[in-house]
Amino acid sequence: MAGEPLGTRAFLALALFKGSVMNRRLFTLASTALATFTFSTLTHAATELRVMVHSSFALPKPLLAQFEAQNGIKLAIIKGGDAGEMLNKLILTRAKPVADVVYGIDNTLQAKALAAGVIEPALPQTAGSTDAQLGDALAAVDYGFVTLNYDKAAVAKTGTPLPKTLSDLTQPAYKGWLVVPNAATSSPGYAFLLATIAGMGEEKAFAWWAQMRANGIKVVKGWSEAYYTEFSLNKGSHPLVVSYATSPAAEVFYAKTKLTESPTASLNLAGGVFRQVEGVALIKGTANKAAGLKFVDFMRSGPVQQALQTEMWMYPAVPKTALVPVMRHAVEPPAFESLAPQIIADQGPKWVARWTQVVLK
């Protein structure tokens, strides 16, 4: 929900972290202009590889330029918006593809991508072998956890202990504590909804959401508004927010003064954690398959797996990749919820419609 952007994404927002790029995947169908950037001064003889990415994609320009120089490839990076929006663009242009490779389709979207026939159904075995698999069509590049974050100082000021379960949040002591992004318009909002359904079952999950509505849950359009405007860390009034497990590390990384500990932490409650896995795939029918596979391997290479940690605030999917020091503040949840991609594809729209009725209508 790879995602804003799953998600992130995952992952923290350009508007939030003073230049950070973790604004994870808004699930909107609105069309936006494709912004294309090239990172090369290669000759016209170089092979052009069109790479569609979601809006949170970011890697150091020297790293991209090195890939171009070493492979005789000129990259055309096409930003397609949020991951869901990006996939919709690929579906609409499948008769005349606008890209050769796509990065950012995640485990909430992979079944839809395959059903629509926009990506090649299988990559060579050499493109696989990761610890966060997405199946044969996508090589996993990174992963992240959508979870609750809390403002340490704000919680301490209330004198109320942290909730130990999602059910605790329905109690009067936690009235108005939580702000969430809209599940219909936000990747992390959607991922959090999926976590509650996977963790509690559909009926109990929607009963919980109804109780949360009665207990003052705040719903906003996207993750940026939830975190940057409504979260108490940023002068909002809600000490709990749906965000990412990497958010505390990003707080330390972008702090104006050096911090030894993050002002926030993750609250990984059962039924409230969802793992988003993002991958890279070949567009079906691409004429640049050889160049595309080189890009697949590039995205799983050591330098990229290192860089994405503080560029996109995701965990590296390739096994044995060392974490950068600041990621010690991004503790991985000990457990998370999951749903089969096909179940998400089949049931997701119905769940979002029901969530909208229960929480907003």
TrEMBL record:
<dbReference type="Pfam" id="PF13343">
    <property type="entry name" value="SBP_bac_6"/>
</dbReference>
<dbReference type="InterPro" id="IPR005948">
    <property type="entry name" value="ThiB-like"/>
</dbReference>
<dbReference type="GO" id="GO:0030975">
    <property type="term" value="F:thiamine binding"/>
</dbReference>
<protein>
    <submittedName>
        <fullName>ABC transporter periplasmic binding, thiB subfamily protein</fullName>
    </submittedName>
</protein>
<dbReference type="GO" id="GO:0015888">
    <property type="term" value="P:thiamine transport"/>
</dbReference>
<keyword id="KW-0732">Signal</keyword>
<dbReference type="GO" id="GO:0030288">
    <property type="term" value="C:outer membrane-bounded periplasmic space"/>
</dbReference>
<dbReference type="GO" id="GO:0030976">
    <property type="term" value="F:thiamine pyrophosphate binding"/>
</dbReference>
